[in-house]
Amino acid sequence: MSRVFRAKLRRDVWRQRWQFTAVALVIALGVCVFVAAFDAYRNLAGSFDRAYAEQRLPDVVITGPGASALAGDVAALPGHPVTQVRHEAETGLRIGDRTLLGRVVGVPDGAQPAVARLALRSGRLPGPGEVLVEQHLADHFHLRVGQKVGLLGPYGWQDFTVSGTGLSTEYFWPARSAQEVMTTPDYFGVLFAPETTVSSVSTAPVEQLAVYAEDRGAAANLVAGTQNLAAARGLPSAVRADQPSFHALDEDVKSIGTFATLLPCLFLAAAVVGTYVLLSRLVAAQRAVIGTLTANGLSPHTLRRHYLGYGLVAGAAGVVPGLVGGYFFGDWFTTQYTSALGLPLHVTELHPWTLVIGAGAALTAASLAAWAPARAAARTSPAEAMSTAPPSGSGRFSLVERAIPPLRRIRARWRMVVRSTTRNRKRSILTVSGVAVSLTLVLVFAGLRDTVSSVVDRQFGTIQRQSAEVSTTPGRAASVLAEVRTDPAVRAAEPYARLDVSLTNGNRRFDTLLMALPTDTTMHQFPTSHGTAQLPARGVLLSRGLKDTLRLNPADPVTITFAETGRSLTEPVAGYVDEPMSAVAYMSLEHLDQSLGEPSATGVLLQLRPGADRDAARQRISVLPGVQAYLDTKALASAMRDAFSLYDTLVGIMLLFAAAMAAAMLFNAMSANVAERAVELGTLRAAGMAPGMLARLIAAENLVLVAIGIPVGLATGTLLARWLMATYQTQGYHWSLQMQTRTPVLAALGILVAALVAQTPVLRTLRRIDIARIVRERSL
Amino acid sequence: MWSRARNDEPDLAAVAEEAAKSGRPAVRLESLGKTYGSGASTVHALKNVRLEVWPGEFVVLLGPSGSGKTTLLNLVGGIERPSSGRIEVAGADIAALSESARTDYRRTRVGFVFQFFNLVPSLTALENVEIIAELTGPNARARSRAALAGVGMAEAADRFPGQLSGGQQQRVAIARAIVKEPPLLLCDEPTGSLDLNTGRQVLGVLRALAREGHHTVIVVTHNSAIADMADHVVWLHSGAVSREQKVDSPVEAADLWW
């Protein structure tokens, strides 16, 4: 490009600096989101991978009596296996005045296990009489080295000293099981202790063999070989994908990866629209210049290159702040995410390829957007461009006027508003698209946040109606129930059983929980697609998610195998329940007791009286003999909300980004609109139309486009959020989009405000319009 | 406001009515000057212009490019403010008016016709007239039809500008200017984009408006042939009036040739 052309480009850009800035802003947002999301995705995935490797997250775990006997056989398999035999015990855990469910995982005395190593955060590995507290639990209760915790053993509560705190890759997300992914440290906590301690707090600890492949390339083969060995002994084995923490975090990272692809596409699409509108207008305004240059022999190729340069300038202007912003935003997101999980593995690496791809995508998008205007410039014939009076454009009655004839009788100025929306159809469509994309962006995040909130409200407000759940030691449910019923704060209490089971239908099997409740329970509602169901006297109600997993229809028999005893029952499927946060089975407690021939209750569900002191009730009930854990439903709901609180921040950020994008696009569309119609607007001003009236008309035109874009955005945003929600489903969580009524209203209002703000500078120029110059020079 | 006087501004409607009765000039320019820029780049577009235009006159302002014709028209039309001097329209000084009062002045007292018609392409001929008629009173549609009929465009009322010839568009522009029934019609090169025959038709319409409608018409042109049909011809040169001539028996537009 020659020096003169570079000067022309530079000055043109400067003359329309605000319009170019608006485009650059949208491009910068796109690059920023791409770099941030992709870097966060890669940093998190890298962090987890590194931690899994350093701490040797088991590739497979065999569980059950005799698992340890397989250690030798597994060690002989290829893949350089490392094995660790350990025992786990489920027990009551007392920290201060709190009583909760505890899991004690056995580790070598004062040493690291070979597999599932611990990352010490404070203190040292536990010796006799000591426990190492899992970090989430330690943080929640502010546990320090030297403090005491109580464990409920066969002979009552025993105190142990905290030797330290640390993280285990198996509890990065401290899930109790695949079915209880969402817990709170008030309910469930993990401790690591010498094997002798595990034996002292449980008469029947679960035996496990954890296996890790040192040769990562042979991990799959080792897993397959180990599973075969386990199956031959009739022992269940769980691979990483079955491991609750690994599974939950893997899903999260995958969803971040989805956003890393989707969101930048939305922003860059908007940037393409904005660049196209700006450059189309520029080329139209320079028709005469282009014609003159062409008439003087300038090649179309040079012209095309020149106008492509404008796109590249806009792209380049957005790339640098986008890359810098993306780096810091990604760093911030990774930090927020890891700190929300309480993880120390915040790894932020600069990924050069992310920057290159981000910059390349932005420049490509800007070039693509500039391509059509540049081609139009190159194809402009000198004769057409040099004509003194440019074509005035062909008018037509708008579609809406044809559909609603009374509109033809409104005031002429408002008819102009109606018609102007379809005057430059391409630009109108692009403006509407910009509004729709912005709104889509907001709704996707707001929809996710609303769904989380709604699901928690539904699960803990409508479905689970108990104020608290009390776990008891074996055989003590009845006595605890009797005690609880006498508590002055308790309005109602009933027994329940929560048992680990396997559901099987032929060769289909699913490990889950069986919840047994009194047939006339008031503590739980069973929502179905048609309303609510009663707990049947016989048979089981299954969560809807299990219908496909087990391929079961109502009345089909399903085999229930109890993990602890190995006993089995066969019951008909009585129906399906629509629960958002669990994939469990329900049956009548009376029927279960009858079928097993013994009381099966494992705890008590209770409802407190309105206005009762929840904390005082918890303290009284927690110390009752036989109480293993006390879970306040409110605390669990609150913990779940906290777990998703990052969404609130992201919604806020995305609202800002989307509003900025909408404002930038509308600003450019309006600027082009006003500049293109400067003559007719100037003429109306010359004829005595007040600037305020003119501003109202132009504002109305744009608001009509915004009004068209809003329902489109609401529809696409809802559909996209619904799709994303569907991709987020797991066996444990079956969520559908639950958007609050006010969310689309507020989102639409936010975009409307952005549109109004974007109009302000353009409407100001209407007041400063130089009528004399416009009507005389006929500037375009 | 032109029709709703502010405390510090004259009630120009009343002044105009009084001026008409008193036989004062429709437009009187006194020591009018207009400069653009400042310092070394100052351009004196108009210098000490004195001129009187009487009600119902058809005035032609002639002069080469850069002589200040359009600037003069813009000043009289209230589009621009003078740098010095007075512009009395119907006896009131419009140079002193506020921005909003000048808007009102343009709305109620002045009609503009431009070289390039400047019609709104998305509105029909009738609607182009109507949008201005709505600014100045009731029955906008009926008045617009009458204005179009007055310039011989009744048949094309529902056509869009893109479907009209240049001459037809200019006649619609004239209808748009006169629908407010302004006492003052200001035309900037109204035939500049038209061929001879069409130009004659348009000038005939303007002449008739001055003669029968009692509008004061000021036409800016560089086409000296148009001077033959004027009542009053003013030559401008380098921003000053170089010559003035009253014509006793102007020719008809149809007899013009250029």
Automatic annotation (TrEMBL), chain A:
InterPro entries: ABC3_permease_C (IPR003838), Lipoprotein-release_system (IPR051447), MacB_PCD (IPR025857). Keywords: Cell membrane, Membrane, Transmembrane, Transmembrane helix. Residues 428-621 form the MacB-like periplasmic core domain. Residues 263-382, 653-770 form the ABC3 transporter permease C-terminal domain. Belongs to the ABC-4 integral membrane protein family. LolC/E subfamily. The keyword Ligase does not apply. Its main location: membrane. The chain crosses the membrane at residues 20-41, 259-279, 307-330, 350-372, 429-448, 644-667, 703-725, 745-766. The keyword Lipid metabolism does not apply. It holds the Pfam family MacB_PCD. This is ABC transporter permease.
From TrEMBL, chain B:
It comes from Catenulispora subtropica. InterPro entries: AAA+_ATPase (IPR003593), ABC_transporter-like_ATP-bd (IPR003439), ABC_transporter-like_CS (IPR017871), ABC_transpr_LolD-like (IPR015854), MacB-like_ATP-bd (IPR017911), P-loop_NTPase (IPR027417). The lineage of its organism: Bacteria, Bacillati, Actinomycetota, Actinomycetes, Catenulisporales. It holds the Pfam family ABC_tran. Residues 27-256 form the ABC transporter domain. Keywords: ATP-binding, Nucleotide-binding, Transport. SUPFAM superfamilies: P-loop containing nucleoside triphosphate hydrolases. The keyword Cytoplasm does not apply. GO terms for molecular function: ATP binding. This is ABC transporter ATP-binding protein.
